[in-house]
Amino acid sequence: MVQSSVLGFPRMGANRELKKATEAYWADKISQEDLLKEGKRLRLEHWNIQKDAGIDIIPSNDFAYYDHVLDHIQLFGVVPERYTKNNLSPIDQYFAMGRGLQKPEQGVDVPSLEMVKWFDSNYHYVKPTLQDNQVFKLAENPKPVQDFKEAKEAGITTRPVLLGPVSFLALGKADRGQTIEPISALEKLLPLYEDLLKQLKAAGAETVQIDEPVLVFDLQDKVKNAFKPAYEKLGSLGDAAPKLVVATYFGDIVHNIDVLKNLENLYAIHVDLVRNPEQISEVIGALGPQQVLSAGVVDGRNIWKTNFKKAIELVETAVQKLGKDRVIVSSSSSLLHTPHSLDSEKKLDAEVVNWFSFAVQKATEIAIIAKAVNEGPAAVREQLEANAQSMQARASSKQTNDQAVKERQQQVTSEMHNRKSPFPTRLAEQGKTLKLPLFPTTTIGSFPQTKDIRIQRNKFTKGEITAEEYEKFIEKEIQDVVKIQEELDLDVLVHGEPERNDMVQYFGERLKGYSFTQNGWVQSYGSRCVRPPIVVGDISRPAAMTVKESKYAASITKKPMKGMLTGPITCLRWSFPRDDVHQSVQAQQLALALRDEVVDLESAGVYVIQVDEPALREGLPLRSGKERTDYLKWAVDSFRLATSGVQDGTQIHSHFCYSEFQDFFYAIAALDADVLSIENSKSDAKLLKVFEDEAYPRHIGPGVYDIHSPRVPSEQEIKDRIKEMLQYLKPEQLWIDPDCGLKTRQWKETKAALTNMVNAAKFYRSQY
Ligand code: GLN
Ligand code: ZN
Asked: Can you name one GO molecular function term for this protein (predicted)?
């Protein structure tokens, strides 16, 4: 029979209980015992949800208090000495690696290990950090075994999830000052996996899911060649170990399929058939005569209801070739990247809510698909009909299809992507209107979001103050911020963004085509969750979104005022996108809406406009080649479409929260933004060399100080930093600004830091 399985379940709980418990533990408000109890309760609850949904193969060890990769770091003893020397309890050591620990009274002060994005998702994992003479040691009473036993005691036989040895190492790095190539440690690591697998088998595990997601990358030969020997070894354990299901997700594995061929001892291969359904035939072709295909047909990365008809067809294709016993129906990836349950959404539009499916609902979908294939459609007729109706309703809904938006998209021309004149002409025009000094100073947009701002916004949301009262309050905030910037003698001012809660949600709430959940939280890192807005239909802008505040701000100062917008790619990447039209289409719709806003700002007398695109890089497809070039093309096009409607004298800025552009510099250059402000204070100034090498003519403001810390940089420090930048950038090209927005800072340090920044700029101005 076809079995149903889930690769992993969200950890936070229906009401983010895990977040609350861990944060309470960190704040010393609950004991370690309470935290562990809450973890246990959540695991059990999640197993039972999946069991009740009818899932045959339920995962364990997918739960983590902070991050599953960090679990493996501790599991294999890849713990740098700085975390072991203070005799912390295991869980405190674990959190210290995840988030750093500062307890001066106990003499503990360690930063966290590096955390980076998990593939192309918004989840972040902790990087395994290895020493040159790395010694691995399997933890006593390993967590995967504990969790398996815990479930078993509750009457549920689970399939433990492990991150595979090749991915674990390939996703790691050498520690500071070390030179080890992590993959070279594979042979030393493998015996620990063997030991662990044996322990799992002894505890009663029949199968284990072993994730090797790096198989979707373009792999270095060393990594690619590591697979075969590693899995020959693990496979040779035979009955002493559980059967192995190698899982991949977020891409296709056709280009790496040869490493999985002829590994007869692997029980099953899991592939993501939501992202890449077309890989099914090649993957089936590569399976040995006994091997099982785990077909990931329910999207683990998005919130849309599964199209049963399509999913069932795909599974049937596999069944025809392999037979029912050799097919498993599954989520495409772990469901970690979807919100917990739709049940708690009470305010969603009744039409739209019927199109969504969160983790709890997705588990049920998987079970239904398996049943349909096993017993025939009649067994689940009602569900299939309801699903078909919902698909039909969504496809034909007015919310999904806005004819006016489609028509406008058809009228987009290539000229609409180009500014009227090349940069030198624009610069001359801008010089006339803006009259900026050399080394102009500015900030990235937001100023401290004080407690008062949050209180007033809350009152307004709850209806405790009127729209006029709130507006008055915002105006007063803008006045204060403008006055402070004038006193600081900054050159290009901003209104401070006091009216914005979040840089994507604020725009989503003002655009047609977006929907918002009340409780659709998704883990981003550690205890941190985000609640992405959902693009439900064609996007358009019913009315101006930011003009009122920016126009007001511009009216109360003689200095140039910079309008502040979030770019199309960032709006898209930090939302759940539609799955029924290509993302390039959605980006173009967003771009058109923003284009109108940009033009409206200009008409309102705002002649500097910044369009933030921090998410541009994270949207880069995982593999190089056509997919990546295509993405960069439409991403750049959407920025240009959004920003090219203005006159030459209007200055377009863009902002990025990093300065590693080497891999796609041509795209950054192609944005044709007059001024780029980028993070640089925490990175090497050498990264600016690309601008020099590529003879980049436009203006750049590399951040001169870190805004993530309350620390005030001295004037001298900033001067030194500028001096370094001048090795790569021409004086007439250089803007002086902080790394990013100041919303998380306090006023005190903000004023002090900006005073030093302006003085440093003035010093250089006097030198040239
Ligand atoms: N304009 C935004 C701000 O200053 C930019 C934030 C960001 O880059 N993440 O807050
Ligand atoms: Zn930033």
From this structure: zinc ion binding
